[in-house]
Write a structure and sequence with these properties.
Layout: H1 19-27, E1 29-34, E2 39-41, E3 49-55, E4 58-63, E5 69-75, E6 80-81, H2 83-88, E7 95-98, E8 102-108, H3 109-118, H4 120-145, H5 149-159, E9 172-174, H6 177-184, H7 188-200, E10 204-207, E11 210-213, H8 216-220
Antiparallel strand pairs: 1-8, 2-7, 3-6, 3-8, 4-5, 4-7, 9-11, 10-11
Helix pairs in contact: 4-5, 5-6, 5-7, 6-7
């Protein structure tokens, strides 16, 4: 595998590994590409891979028996997910949907478990990741039950700049209003109105297909 296509280059946990661990990880990863709208897996499917987003955007969501849709998280470039299901060796309890053309790095379960059992650095990363993800899911419940639509848009956008879950995100992100609407659980017109109001409050700058965040702290606490 050449350096140009090395999936570990953009992985935050790469720096925590020894060279031998890094080589083991690299040999256990395959890359797969998905087109916009494709399902990586459905709720109840098995997906025995720890998965990283090299390029693109993935939505973790579910639909209740009554037909209510709920989005748990959006996973952007640099984000890794699915460690809980891999550790517990269970089927996925959510749908994984690709919101734009996406390229994934997929680490097989055997390699993941070897790192889990042998690498101190890898385990430190997992603890940070799981702690941050727990906070994200608790916040999602709050968003859905308490916050109005604009606040939900603000906070869902802020999560995409979380430095632990999405390292290297910087201060801007390429995301469409349609994609942000799907992540926030609101309509595209609602996102359009919310972005204009948040821009007027000088919290962000919205351009076609791109959002530059100017006050991430306020967006993350927006009510």
């Amino acid at each position: 595998m050449t350096t140009r296509t090395d999936p570990l280059r953009s992985a935050a946990w790469n720096a925590d590994l020894t060279e031998d661990e890094r080589d083991r990880a690299r040999r256990g990863i395959v890359e797969k590409s998905y087109g916009k709208g494709a399902y990586i897996c459905h709720r109840g499917d098995r997906l025995d891979y720890w998965t990283g987003v090299l390029t693109g955007l993935v939505k973790i969501s579910t639909i209740s028996r009554s037909g209510k849709a709920m989005t748990f998280a959006g996973i952007g470039e640099g984000g890794w997910f699915g460690e809980g299901s891999v550790l517990k060796d269970e089927a996925r309890k959510y749908d994984l949907v690709v919101l734009r053309d996406t390229r994934l790095a997929m680490m097989n379960r055997a390699t993941f478990l070897w790192l889990f059992e042998n690498s101190v650095g890898f385990n430190r990363y997992l603890v940070r990741q799981l702690n941050e993800r727990m906070g994200q899911f608790i916040a999602t419940i709050e968003h859905d039950r308490i916050l109005d639509a604009k606040a939900r848009v603000a906070r869902n956008l802020a999560w995409l700049f979380n430095p632990v879950l999405y390292p290297g995100s910087g201060t801007s992100i390429e995301i469409s209003q349609e994609e942000l609407a799907l992540l926030s659980g609101v309509s595209r017109p609602v996102v359009n109105r919310a972005l204009h109001e948040l821009e007027a409050e000088k919290l962000l700058r919205a351009e076609h297909g791109r959002i530059e965040v100017r006050d991430i702290g306020t967006l993350a606490r927006y009510e």
